């Protein structure tokens, strides 16, 4: 277990380094970015989902999504010749509370380093405060959903509902994402309703012989929020893009037209 956690941490740190632009990695002037923090007694998943919505509302495209742990964005509405910002949001369960930290970074107009002018420092602070407020406002309005069949299915580790039993679509690094999207696009509700889906992030490191060489035999699942007309609350389904499908059933509560999965 400890080895798996260490490897997961290494993957997460690698994702940060790869995803944050040069501006976030260069610590120009010896100053670090602002870090604005908050705590809440709401569930960790609710905080994570609120952070996604707060970032998107403020024009931040998401680049790295580590489920219930971290979000990293691309540039916020970049304009040629003008500074912009990127942001990282970290969250962690601490006892009965969840602590979250927002780290905005101003990027210079040339897009090759951190901007540390007074204007940019003010921009960082304003961006961070705006994102924190967005999270806190959503937490004030949060209402816990009633327990549902999906919760029972997750507890029973039913296909797709638990990371221990993901839907396998195959494809790996070359076609894995396309296979996931094709599988989701072909999914239907119990009465044939068209589903809509949203990727919540990656999680749940596991061993697989089909992982890319640079991942050293480890893979990550993708978690998708899935809904359809008439479903009171979205459900979370876990997909495995590394291991090929093997005549598996459709997750409970869904149907699927008789069509083969994309080639792996």
Net shape: globular
Please count the beta strands (DSSP E, at least 2 residues each): 9
- Which structural category fits the helices and strands? alpha+beta
Helix percent reads: 25-40%
How large is the radius of gyration? 20 Å
Largest sheet: spatial strand order: 1-5-4-3-2
Low-confidence stretches: 1-31
What is the CA-CA span between the terminal residues?
30 Å
Largest sheet: 5 strands, antiparallel
The secondary-structure element order is HHEHEEEEHHEHEEE
Count up the helices. 6
Overall average residue pLDDT:
85
Beta percentage is: 25-35%
Tell me what the structure shows.
The structure is a single chain. With 264 residues, this protein is an alpha+beta fold. The chain contains 6 helices and 9 strands. Helix 3 crosses helix 4. The two termini are 30 Å apart.
């Amino acid at each position: 277990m400890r080895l798996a956690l260490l490897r997961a941490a290494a993957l997460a740190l690698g994702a940060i380094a790869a995803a944050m632009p040069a501006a976030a990695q260069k610590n120009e002037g010896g100053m670090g970015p602002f870090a604005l923090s908050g705590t809440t007694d709401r569930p960790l998943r609710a905080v994570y989902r609120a952070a996604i919505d707060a970032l998107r509302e403020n024009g931040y495209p998401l680049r790295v999504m580590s489920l219930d742990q971290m979000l990293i964005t691309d540039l916020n509405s970049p304009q040629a010749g003008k500074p912009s910002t990127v942001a990282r949001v970290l969250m962690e369960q601490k006892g009965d509370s969840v602590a979250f930290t927002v780290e905005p970074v101003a990027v210079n107009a040339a897009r090759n380093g951190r901007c540390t002018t007074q204007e940019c420092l003010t921009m960082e602070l304003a961006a961070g405060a705006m994102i924190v407020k967005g999270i806190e406002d959503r937490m004030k309005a949060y209402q816990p959903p009633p327990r549902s069949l999906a919760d029972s299915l997750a507890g029973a580790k039913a296909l797709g509902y638990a990371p221990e039993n993901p839907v396998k679509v195959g494809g790996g690094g070359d076609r894995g994402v396309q296979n996931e999207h094709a599988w989701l696009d072909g999914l239907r509700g119990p009465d044939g309703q068209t589903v809509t889906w949203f990727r919540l992030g990656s999680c749940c490191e596991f061993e697989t012989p089909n992982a890319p060489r640079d991942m050293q035999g480890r893979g990550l699942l993708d978690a998708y929020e899935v809904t359809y007309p008439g479903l009171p609350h979205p459900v979370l389904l876990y997909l495995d893009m590394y291991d090929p499908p093997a005549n598996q059933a459709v997750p409970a509560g869904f149907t699927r037209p008789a069509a083969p999965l994309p080639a792996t």
